[in-house]
UniProtKB/TrEMBL annotation:
GO molecular function: protein transmembrane transporter activity
Principal cellular location given in the protein's record: mitochondrion
CDD domains, alphabetized: Porin3_Tom40
Example of a GO biological process term: protein import into mitochondrial matrix
Compartments, record wording: Mitochondrion outer membrane
One protein family per Pfam: Porin_3
Bilayer topology: Multi-pass membrane protein
Species of provenance: Cylindrobasidium torrendii FP15055 ss-10
Assigned GO CC terms: mitochondrial outer membrane
Record protein name field: Mitochondrial import receptor subunit tom40
Top-rank lineage group of the source organism: Eukaryota
PANTHER family reported in the protein's UniProt record: MITOCHONDRIAL IMPORT RECEPTOR SUBUNIT TOM40 (PTHR10802)
Keywords annotated in UniProt: Membrane, Mitochondrion, Mitochondrion outer membrane, Protein transport, Transmembrane, Transmembrane beta strand, Transport
Length: 352
């Protein structure tokens, strides 16, 4: 009896997936451009609001004050984060004594923060992350005096692309007459080091004529990210250029140049700052072309207690100011509860 030969199998798998169709027409051009940008592997350039983030962290921005301050913070929970704060300030030559109470709540996708002072002024912030690339922000400020113009509401949305960033912001928008201040910004990486973009400001008000202004933005980041240079050109011919360099793990330096070439008045300001990080302290120093010299020392004696001392001398006006403050942090949770909420073993626990 003749042997039965096995059936000859085809080399083509009938269940193999069909090749993905290539778009045609305008979609084909978009598909090719998208693939070309993906193949370039350009980095995310950051948003325009954080264009000079490293420079501001090195400078004495928002760190100088006169008089005395005290911030008392108590953590009620770590996951989710819930914290309350009490802030006091007194002895200032320009500001009256103040007290404010604040509360903070945060999860992986949401963040809420609000403060109220002794005069009844309320400020609040809300951040909501819809996805790793999309975030909505809201800020509000309400004045107890009820004077028009002292209450502000800001709505903002950030979108992070693979090699670009988009931001839209609306200040005091009113849907009936479409009034408000609107800002749209875009920043695009052109190479691994260079990013260019722009910002458009649109003002609409029933009491004043509407207007718009466009600014140009540029940013250059070194390959090893050890230094960053940026520049922005405003419509009124104001140029702001910055340079930040990380000399070592503990030393940062920053320089900023602001020049105004308007038709009425021409002026400029140059600022040089340095920051030195020690094991338990941070020292900042700054000097500018307006004759101001300042320094800030932040000393942390323990993880929950810090002391700040700052001072500034204006040589041209022959004035000076000095301020000091303390920050105290405490928690109602025990070490074991804190470790459990943070996902780490408690002190002295045996880790296997």
């Amino acid at each position: 009896m003749a042997a039965t030969l096995p059936a000859k199998t085809s080399a083509i798998d009938p269940f193999a997936a069909a090749p993905e169709p290539i778009p045609s027409g305008p979609f084909s051009i978009f598909h090719r451009l998208s693939k070309w940008r993906t193949d370039l592997g350009l980095p995310y350039p950051g948003n325009t609001e954080d264009l000079t983030k490293e420079v501001k962290r090195t400078q004495l921005t928002n760190l100088l004050y006169d008089g005395a301050r005290a911030d008392l913070a108590k953590a009620m929970s770590m996951n989710p984060l819930f914290q309350v704060t009490h802030s006091f300030s007194l002895g200032s030559q320009t500001m009256p004594p103040t007290y404010s109470f604040g509360a903070m709540y945060g999860t992986e996708k949401s963040f809420l923060h609000g403060t109220v002072d002794h005069d009844g002024n309320v400020t609040s912030r809300w951040h909501q992350s819809w996805s790793p690339k999309s975030t909505t922000k809201m800020q509000a400020q309400s004045a107890s005096s009820g004077v028009p113009g002292h209450s502000v509401a800001i709505f903002e949305h950030d979108y992070q692309g693979q090699d670009y960033s988009l931001n839209a912001k609306a200040t005091n928008p009113w849907p009936t007459d479409m009034s408000g201040i609107f800002v749209f910004s875009y920043l695009q990486s052109l190479t691994r080091n260079l990013a260019l973009g722009g910002e458009c400001l649109v003002t609409r008000s029933p009491m004043m004529p509407s207007g718009n202004a466009t600014s140009l933005i540029g940013k250059w980041t070194s390959t090893d990210k050890s230094w960053i240079a940026s520049a922005s050109l405003m419509p009124d011919n104001t140029l702001n250029a910055t340079y930040w360099h990380k000399l070592s793990e503990k030393v940062d330096v920053a320089a900023e140049l602001m020049m105004s070439a308007g038709s009425v008045r021409r002026e400029g300001l140059a600022t040089l700052a340095a920051k030195y990080d020690l094991r338990m302290s941070t020292f900042r120093a700054q000097v500018d072309s307006a004759g101001k010299v300042g320094a800030v020392l932040e000393q942390r004696f323990t993880p929950v207690f810090a002391f700040t001392l700052n001072g500034e001398i204006d040589h041209f006006k022959n004035t000076a100011k000095v301020g000091f403050g303390v920050q105290i942090e405490s928690s109602t949770l025990s070490d074991e509860e804190l470790s459990a909420q943070m996902g780490v073993p408690p002190p002295g626990a045996l880790v296997i």
